[in-house]
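Bumping with the actual sequence this time:
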Amino acid sequence: MDADDLTYAGYLDLERVLSAQHPRSDAHDEMLFIVIHQASELWLKLMLHELGAARDRIAADDLRPAFKMLSRVSRAQTQMITSWDVLATMTPIEFNGMRPELGTSSGFQSHQYRMLEAVLGARDPKHLARFAREPVFHAALAAEYARPGIYDVALGLLRQRGFDIPERPEHPDAHVEAAWMAIYRDPTRYFDLYELAEKLVDLEYNLQRWRFGHLKTVERIIGFKRGTGGSAGTAYLGAVLKLVFFPELLSVRTAL
């Protein structure tokens, strides 16, 4: 289409976007449930776009554009966190009116969320195996599993800058913590690495806020029932709150 003929709806492909909501029940609140999750998937798509580019910039020791990208991811995370406030307007009775139509589908099966975890460094073969019947998603996640995580790339940069970092550290690692300790104790000398550390902490912090919001929203709507995808519901969500991606960036705060 010629740019002179392009409309707002055409540029955004709104005909397809706004016709992608297909409630399976007569429940009024199912539209809310669908829109919240579709919007979250779009935010995840943006976050993966930015994180992939930021990872490349960090690997190239070009940190200033990486910082802008990581800041944008943190803002997108905030949007996802506040979306729980909207979903929490759904009551248990309203959710029960549509829940049978969900079948075995669950946010647990979001390949983009598993991609986000992989970019941040968490790679569990069990999650990859769950997409065996969805070859496009399986291929995308497998490709991400083959790449270094953003923390691996950050530690590679520290190694390149002269810090004593093992090639494949087991986390938590005393050498990695010592490197971050040196950076935090002399931020003037290592200001760009100090800022990188804080940008990574922002990612971890906001992801934990999102996870906690997820836990409390699920608890509010379904209590302690099992999740639709077969997960343990709030028990599972509570357990993942204990998982961290950048352990030395947290432990160094105790040691400072």
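The tokens above came from a reply further down the thread. The chain has a mean pLDDT of 93.
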